[in-house]
Amino acid sequence: MSAKAKTAYRCTECGADHPKWAGRCDTCGAWNSLVEETVARTAPATGSSRRAGGARTLGEGGSVVATPRLRSVSGSEAARWTTDLAEFDFVLGGGVVPGSMILLGGEPGIGKSTLLLQVAARFQLAGRPALYASGEESALQIKLRADRLTDDAGDVSLLSETNLETIIATASATAPSVLIVDSIQTVHTGDLEGAPGNVGQVRECAARLMRFAKESGTAVFVVGHVTKGGSIAGPRTLEHIVDTVLYFEGESSLDHRVLRATKNRFGSVDEIGVFRMGQDGLAPVSNPSELFLGDRTNHASGSAVTALLEGTRPVLIEVQGLAAKAGFGTPQRVATGYDARRLALLLAVLDKRAGLSFAQLDVFLNVVGGVQLHEPAGDLAVAVALASSVYDRALPHDAVFVGEVGLGGEIRPVSQVERRLAEAASLGMHTVYLAERAVPKKLPAGIRVCGTRTVSQLFEQVFQ
Ligand code: TYD
Ligand code: MG
C-alpha cells in the first residue's frame, strides 16, 4: 500500500485548517465542523524560491497552458445509454451520460439497491458490462434479491468490498461501463483516519470516484442513505461533488416509489419518475395520475383533485380534508404531505374571507399517495376540500381545482395551465376551476373551465 497521504482538518464553516481534530473550530467557534481532508503532497514553496526580499511574484511555480477558443473545442454530447426502464431514463434526462457520476439518495429500505440492480441487469443485457460493488450485503443476499427480479441480473459482476482503492483498482482492471457503489457510507479510503461514513471519508471517496468516472468514461452510481431527520455525513455533503442527484422516496407502507432529480448537469431538475414495488422488483408506472387517483371513493365529502407540475410533467393528486367537531382544549391541526404553517394560513384566510370558522373544529389534511404538496397551485384544492368537509357536501367527481390562494382570499394564476388542463382531460375530468385571469383561450376537448376570483366566489359556484 502507498504511504499515507498527508491529511489536515478543515472547518466546513470557515475553511480554517487545523493540524488536529477538535470538537470546535477555534477560528469561527462552530461545533463539530472539522472534516479530515487529504492535502497536496508537495509542500508550498519556501526558502529557495523566495526572492531576496521575501516577496514572490503571483503565479510563481505555475506553468503557462494553452487557452483554446470555445469555438475550436471539438466533440459533441456523447450518446446516452438507455436502460429501457422508461421512468428511470426520463428522470435522468434521456438516459445515462457515460463518465457521469450519479448519487441515489433515500431512506433505508426504500428500494435503492433493487433499482440499481435492475439498472445493472439491463446494462449488462445490452452489452455494457456492469460491476456491482456492495459493502452492505453479502454476495448471497444480492443473489437472493436478483432471483426475485424479472430482469435477469445473472451476468452482473459482483464485488463485496469496502476499500475504495480496491474497488477503483478492480474497476480499472475490468473496465465495466457501469460501476455501482452501494453504499458510499460503507466505503473508506486508507488515506484518511476516520471510520467509514464520516463526512471526511464520504467526501473524499466520492471525489475519487468522480475522478475515476471522468478519467475512465465509466458511469458511476453511488448509493447514499438519508435518515428520517435529514442526513448525517450523508448525501447532502456530496451534492455539489456529483453530476446528478436522484432521490428515491415514498412511504414504505405504500407500494409506489417516486424517483426525483434534484440536481442534474445533463437534464432538467425536479423531474419525477414513478415506480411500483412488486414481488418481482420495481416496475415503471407510465401514468402516475392514474395511480394517485386510483382509490378515490365516489361522492365522499372532503375530497378534491388538483393538477400539480412535477418537473415538466403534470400529475393529478387528490387532497382530503376532514373537519370534525373538536373535543376539549385547543382544536387539532394535522397535515400530512402539506406544510402545517401553510394550512394554518389557509384556515385563517377561509375564516376571514369566506366566513368559514374552524375555531371549534379539528382539522385533518391528507395529500393522498404519500405525495408532498409544495406547489402553491394546490392551495385551492386544499381550501375547497376543507370547505367540502365543513358543509358535508361532496365535490363533483370530475372537477379539478388549480390556483394559489392569497391572503385576501383571492385566487392567483399559476404557471403552465395548458399542461395541467391536458392532463385533466386525459384522465376524463370535465371541469377545471382556475383563477379568472388564467383561463386560456384554447381548451382541450371535453374540458370546461370556470374562472373564479376569490375563494368565497368559488364556494358559491360549487356549493350553491
Ligand atoms: P432495498 O432495495 O434493499 O432497499 P434499500 O437498498 O433502499 O435499503 O429494498 C428493500 C425493500 O424492498 C424490502 O423491504 C423488500 C422490498 N422488495 C420488494 O418488495 N420486492 C422486490 O422484488 C425486492 C427485490 C424487494
Ligand atoms: Mg440497499
What does this structure look like?
- The chain is of the alpha/beta class and 464 residues long.
- The chain folds into three domains: 1-39; 86-285, Rossmann fold (3-Layer(aba) Sandwich); 291-462, 2-Layer Sandwich (Ribosomal Protein S5, domain 2), CATH 3.30.230.
- The protein contains ten helices and 21 strands.
- Strands 6-5-7-8-4-9-10-11-12 form a nine-stranded mixed β-sheet. Strands 13-14-16-15 form a four-stranded mixed β-sheet. It has a three-stranded antiparallel β-sheet with strand order 2-1-3.
- A hairpin with a 5-residue loop joins strand 1 and strand 2.
- Helix 7 crosses helix 8 and helix 8 packs across helix 10 (455-463).
- The longest helix is centred in the middle third of the chain and has 18 residues, at 199-216.
- The radius of gyration is 27 Å and the shape is globular.
- The model is unreliable at 43-51 (pLDDT under 50).
- Thymidine-5'-diphosphate binds next to helix 2 and helix 3.
Task: Present the secondary structure layout.
Elements: E1 7-11, E2 17-18, E3 34-38, H1 86-92, E4 101-106, H2 112-125, E5 130-134, H3 139-148, E6 157-160, H4 164-174, E7 178-182, H5 199-216, E8 219-225, E9 244-249, E10 256-264, E11 272-278, E12 281-284, H6 288-293, E13 303-310, E14 313-325, E15 333-336, H7 340-354, E16 361-367, H8 379-391, E17 399-401, E18 404-405, E19 411-412, H9 417-426, E20 431-435, E21 448-452, H10 455-463
Parallel strand pairs: 4-8, 4-9, 5-6, 5-7, 7-8, 15-16, 17-20, 20-21
Antiparallel strand pairs: 1-2, 1-3, 9-10, 10-11, 11-12, 13-14, 14-16, 18-19
Helix pairs in contact: 7-8, 8-10
The structure holds thymidine-5'-diphosphate and magnesium ion.
Residues 112-113, 136, 182 line the site of magnesium ion (MG).
